[in-house]
Write a structure and sequence with these properties.
By secondary structure, this protein is α/β, with parallel strands linked by helices. The protein has a single domain (52-210), classed as OB fold (Dihydrolipoamide Acetyltransferase, E2P), CATH 2.40.50.140. The protein is built from 4 helices and 6 strands, in the order αβααβββαββ. A 5-stranded mixed beta barrel has the order 2-3-4-6-5. The longest helix is centred in the N-terminal third of the chain and has 15 residues, at 2-16. The relative contact order is 0.17. The model is unreliable at 1-13 (pLDDT under 50).
Length: 223
């Protein structure tokens, strides 16, 4: 009995010691409103056109854990505009016929063009296409043979190293194309080239849907 009475007495004392004031709601804030960014807009990706992806769509699918297996390492087609080419920036030392060795110290890249969804937008999302020519001497040979032609020759220029046909016309900025090849994060040809953001296409073929305003050309002033 004594123990029970003591416990009850302590419990009563503890409860009675709670002197918290009753809750009073705070007044509505009347100061300067915070500047918050607008919520991001829902991005609607364009669907495939037949068997061909847009640039934005296939980049999205490559990054997606759901769709990555559908495009990574697979041969796919992409339709877009050529927004970049490194033909004009090829060094002068590489602008020569095949069979001639580049002079010592001549440093060049693999011939490349890039496609994007918006014509003329070389700052937005774009996918580089490599493997359509192994070096710039092969591009030089094609440029000489294709010059002034309105239609593809019966025997297009064959890449000296790869043994594949170099596309006619040569890729030029402004053309709308449907390009087909293996797509993924890494170039599947000679030389290690990767792009962890947008991916790279290893070229198989290209179809010109709209011609470029000007044919591909070297910058003759390039040193």
């Amino acid at each position: 009995m004594f123990t029970t009475a003591l416990v009850l007495g302590l419990s009563t004392t503890a409860c009675g010691a709670n002197n918290d004031e009753p809750y009073k709601p705070a007044p509505v804030w009347t100061g300067k409103k915070p500047s918050l960014p607008a919520p991001p807009a829902n991005v609607v990706l364009p669907p495939k056109t037949g068997d061909s992806y847009s640039v934005a769509r296939i980049i999205h699918d490559l990054r997606s854990r759901i769709h990555e297996k559908e495009v990574s390492g697979k041969e796919v087609s992409i339709t877009g505009y050529i927004v970049e080419s490194n033909i004009p920036s090829a060094p002068k030392c590489a602008q020569h016929p095949t069979g001639k060795k580049d002079p010592e110290g001549c440093v060049t890249d693999i011939p490349m063009f890039a496609v994007g969804d918006v014509k003329g937008d070389d700052k937005g999302k774009k996918i580089r296409v490599l493997g359509w020519a192994s070096n710039f001497p092969n591009v030089y040979e094609a440029m000489q043979k294709y010059k002034g032609l309105k239609e593809a020759p019966k025997k297009p220029v064959t890449d000296e190293l790869k043994g594949t046909e170099i596309p006619f016309p040569l890729p030029a900025v402004g053309a709308k194309v449907k390009v087909t090849g293996k797509y993924g994060y890494t170039y599947q040809g000679a030389g290690l080239v990767t792009d962890p953001n947008n991916g790279i296409m290893t070229y198989s073929k290209v179809e010109v849907l709209e011609p470029a305003p000007e044919p591909a050309a070297f910058d003759t002033a390039k040193k």
